[in-house]
Amino acid sequence: MTIPASPRAPPKELDALIVGAGFSGCYLLYKIREELKLNVKIFEAGSSLGGTWHWNCYPGARVDCPVPGYELSIEDIWKNWTWKEKYPSWEELQEYFAHIDQELSLSQDCFFQSEVVSAQFLPEQQRWVVATKGGSVTFAKYLIPAIGFATKQYIPDWKGLDTFRGKIYHSSAWPKEGVNVKGKKVGVIGTGSTGVQITQSWAKEAAETYVFQRTPNTSLPMRQEKLDPSQQKDRQGRLELFADSLTTFGGLPYDNVARNTFDDSPEEREATYERLYEEGGLKLWIASYKDLMTDDAANRESYQFWAKKTRARINDPTLKDALAPLEPLHAFGTKRPSLEQDYYEQFNKPHVHLVDIKNHPIAELQPNGIVTTDGKLHEVDFIAIATGFDSVTGGIKKMGIKDADGVELSQRWNEGIYTYLGLMVSRCPNMFLPYSAHSPSVFSNGPTSIEVQGSWIVQIIRKMESQGVHTIEPKKQAEQAWREEILAVANMTLLPSTKSWYMGSNIPGKHVEPIFYIGGLPRYQQKCAEALTSWVDFITV
Ligand code: N01
């Protein structure tokens, strides 16, 4: 689905300006337009709805949360939509966004290929002034950067990067028409969720596949299923699924085992792990014992179960140790496990090679390949860069947000992120940040937490409009309290012990701290509800 760039000029004045047309942008456009009747538009850098699913169209890209469930709960969308696979591919998700557009007529209020490059709050005018790359300037009372966590790619500064003569792509800037690697030599750099998915696809087509691994992924079996359309017609069932998802830690239609690991006997534990592993998806992580992420020994138990299962799928003893070592290299789940279908089996093929860049990092790129510090040249025609993102703060910086004092938000956050509920920021009046820092976003089913946050934003704007409030911003002490909650909850977990994008430690020089809220969706909703009952945490004008 590609909607041509709109020839219309962006409006000069708006009530609300949303940046980004992913799940949160679409949800908020619809709700603000239909329920609040405000003049609201989306500015989107891409050429269609979809957000992350517009950009991430690399081979094998698919979601790791199941459907039905990974979707908006707006009935006008799901009543006429049938999912084909339990874990939809990017192609199916793009079709889904085209369907959303058809049902809710969203693109009429979108300005595509309109990348926002600056946004500043003007105190005298009590509104935001927003500029796009194309040179347009728009004033808006409310600003909603709905830009997700993965807007800013991370590409390491490898020597010789621009000398490579083959084709090279970052995963989130993949050509829509695809890349034909049949008979070619390919390299995949990075083994996060993206690298695993690309490897799994490319290894089936390319003549030689080189996978450059620094840290092995703890990938879990996806257990993909074709879905039966008739089972998606149960209206009551769907309503219950959405309602149930709001009650679980991760916004998914299941929760964790309500016991600690060592409450069970070794046999009971084995049976539990076995069941979760067989059910597939992220369950061995998210639906496991409740102390998995807080207790070292408990975490180790589940890791060792995973390693045993995974090693059994790999033929070569050296590869067993490289892909699934007996001893964990980091606590299980503190780096996001990818979902795989036959990732490990690829390494049993003679044309698939694992390159250890932990011990021999990439030294440089040359015109015909990648050289590692042991002096080896790995000749390749195509390279997939799957090194991830400068999550959240990279995107905020790229958007050039300046507060009421003219200070860049990214600069304010250089030594630590401060938000109120992961939704608002002091000195940034009337700005709301869905699916951003300090929110449950990446530790939850995306659309579920987006709706929790989105409906909070709609409620607060409604209250402002009905009470004639011009501006609202959180007090500094309210921000401080939320930061303390973020840190306290994260410090109860094993998360800070690992270098990962959850902690910002994947980017050289970035401030290391927990970027997201890991206290679970029910507690988060309670905090959001409390904030709406009184205005004590806000400064209003
Ligand atoms: O990025 P990552 P990603 N030299 O940061 C390696 C979502 N997502 O794009 O672990 C060599 O996880 C790095 O190594 P190490 C999902 O939430 C979802 O894969 O730092 N290698 C790592 O292996 C996911 O978690 C899906 O040692 C370097 C990799 O690059 C998030 O997006 C699919 C390096 C980066 O992994 C990000 O995933 C895809 C260097 N200088 C993405 N720097 C779904 O399935 C980094 N690496 C829904």
UniProtKB/TrEMBL annotation:
<comment type="similarity">
    <text>Belongs to the FAD-binding monooxygenase family.</text>
</comment>
<keyword id="KW-0285">Flavoprotein</keyword>
<keyword id="KW-0274">FAD</keyword>
<dbReference type="GO" id="GO:0004499">
    <property type="term" value="F:N,N-dimethylaniline monooxygenase activity"/>
</dbReference>
<keyword id="KW-0503">Monooxygenase</keyword>
<keyword id="KW-0560">Oxidoreductase</keyword>
<dbReference type="InterPro" id="IPR036188">
    <property type="entry name" value="FAD/NAD-bd_sf"/>
</dbReference>
<dbReference type="InterPro" id="IPR020946">
    <property type="entry name" value="Flavin_mOase-like"/>
</dbReference>
<protein>
    <recommendedName>
        <fullName>FAD/NAD(P)-binding domain-containing protein</fullName>
    </recommendedName>
</protein>
<dbReference type="GO" id="GO:0050660">
    <property type="term" value="F:flavin adenine dinucleotide binding"/>
</dbReference>
<dbReference type="Pfam" id="PF00743">
    <property type="entry name" value="FMO-like"/>
</dbReference>
<keyword id="KW-0521">NADP</keyword>
<dbReference type="GO" id="GO:0050661">
    <property type="term" value="F:NADP binding"/>
</dbReference>
<dbReference type="InterPro" id="IPR050775">
    <property type="entry name" value="FAD-binding_Monooxygenases"/>
</dbReference>
